[in-house]
Amino acid sequence: MNVFSFYYTKIKMLAKSISFSAVLLCQLSFLPLNAHAEASIAWDSLSTQQQETLAPMKDQWQNLPAERQLRLSKGAEKWANMDPAQRENLKSGLQRYKKLSKEEKAEVKAQMRAFKALPPEERKLLRERWKNLSPEQKAQFRQKFKNMTPEQRQEIREKRKLRQQERRERKAQRELAQ
Prior knowledge:
It is a single chain. By secondary structure, the chain is mainly α. It has one domain (about 5-175). Helix content is about 70%, strand content about 0%. The protein has helices spanning about 5-15, 20-25, 50-55, 65-80, 85-100, 100-115, 120-130, 135-145, 150-175. It starts with a helix and ends with a helix.
């Protein structure tokens, strides 16, 4: 199995369990914070749309840590800029995520971290390849992964680790040669 197949498998698994946009929104809580995010954000400084989105948080807003206020305000801004279809997709993805077991949630988070660790070019390439597949190919891919045993999945993970190590070694050799 080549690198593309492995990562393609991982992306397909993520797509099946939770939509990509939902993962991104869930991951807001893991974003690195900017150094200037120490100051609290006043509720009144939020846009009307942000306030509407965050209305359930209004009473506790001033007690939230500044970094959480920042993440929530950015998430509310993203929400406001989504079209209705994107919002519905996100809602359904979050509902699916909530229904996952602790172990499944941990796996989704681990896969998302692994995907984010890829170089931007590789992530872009994988997204493009996925978008270019026909619905039948996507369904076939999902079914293939669904039918794998845990051992087969573990074997894929181990092969991936080996490929990553080989890439790091090749990169180090190229850098030394320059």
